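User: quick one, sequence for these tokens?
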């Protein structure tokens, strides 16, 4: 199954993508994680991307389109995948559909997770990431923990630089101006499943999995 997880930063795309990836046994492809890994490895791409990410802006389309092509043609994605954080521009969306055509991917769904902006800002500022397994947690749930509940790494929690309040405002502005039009672009394909992301994690997952069965 080929899925696209769509929604503003902090709405829970990463969390849901990880769960659904296990549930449906398809790889979770997060373009944000790919860029952060490139930075950790100090590649030219990673160093360039890091500066852009820290400003809350988008990495140029030509770079992102190349990255996603390499991933989707790889054997691990031959049975489908769940894209998290891609496409983020109409240009990326158009090229993704061309790539789907080339790879003979006919059935795909776009899961649009929505929530109001105040909730989203609160969630991002409270978000902590494990540097070992990339899992994300709410600070309130892990503030007394020294080990990551997912992978057991010790003292691995950190706050992403782009999760700080000054950068979040910019990321939301970019989302509203540049990424939201992607939703309109997909309207004509009748592939969108709208899901309320404001509820508990399990409820959101349930709504997604049930919604996917319907079509
Ligand atoms: P995320 O982890 O999905 O919130 O992404 C973190 C940052 O990585 C974004 O704010 C962008 O700077 C960059 N990024 C991730 N995916 C894309 C994309 N599809 N297009 C452009 N930039 C991206």
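Assistant:
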């Amino acid at each position: 199954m080929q899925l696209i997880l769509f929604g503003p930063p902090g709405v829970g795309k990463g969390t849901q993508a990880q769960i659904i990836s296990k549930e449906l046994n398809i790889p979770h492809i997060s373009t944000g994680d790919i860029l952060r890994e490139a930075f950790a490895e100090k590649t030219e791409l990673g160093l360039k991307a890091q500066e852009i990410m820290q400003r809350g802006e988008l990495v140029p389309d030509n770079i992102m389109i190349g990255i996603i092509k390499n991933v989707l043609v790889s054997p691990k994605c031959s049975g489908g995948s769940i894209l998290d954080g891609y496409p983020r521009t109409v240009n990326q969306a158009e090229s993704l559909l061309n790539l789907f055509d080339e790879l003979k991917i006919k059935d795909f769904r776009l899961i649009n997770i929505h929530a109001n902006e105040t909730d989203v800002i609160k969630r991002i500022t409270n978000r902590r990431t494990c540097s070992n397994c990339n899992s994300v947690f709410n600070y309130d749930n892990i503030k007394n923990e020294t080990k990551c509940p997912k992978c057991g790494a010790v003292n691995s929690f950190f706050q992403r630089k782009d999760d700080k309040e000054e950068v979040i405002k910019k990321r939301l502005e970019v989302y509203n101006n540049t990424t939201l039009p992607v939703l309109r672009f997909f309207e004509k394909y009748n592939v969108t499943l709208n899901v309320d992301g404001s509820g508990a994690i399990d409820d959101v997952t349930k709504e997604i999995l049930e919604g996917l069965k319907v079509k």
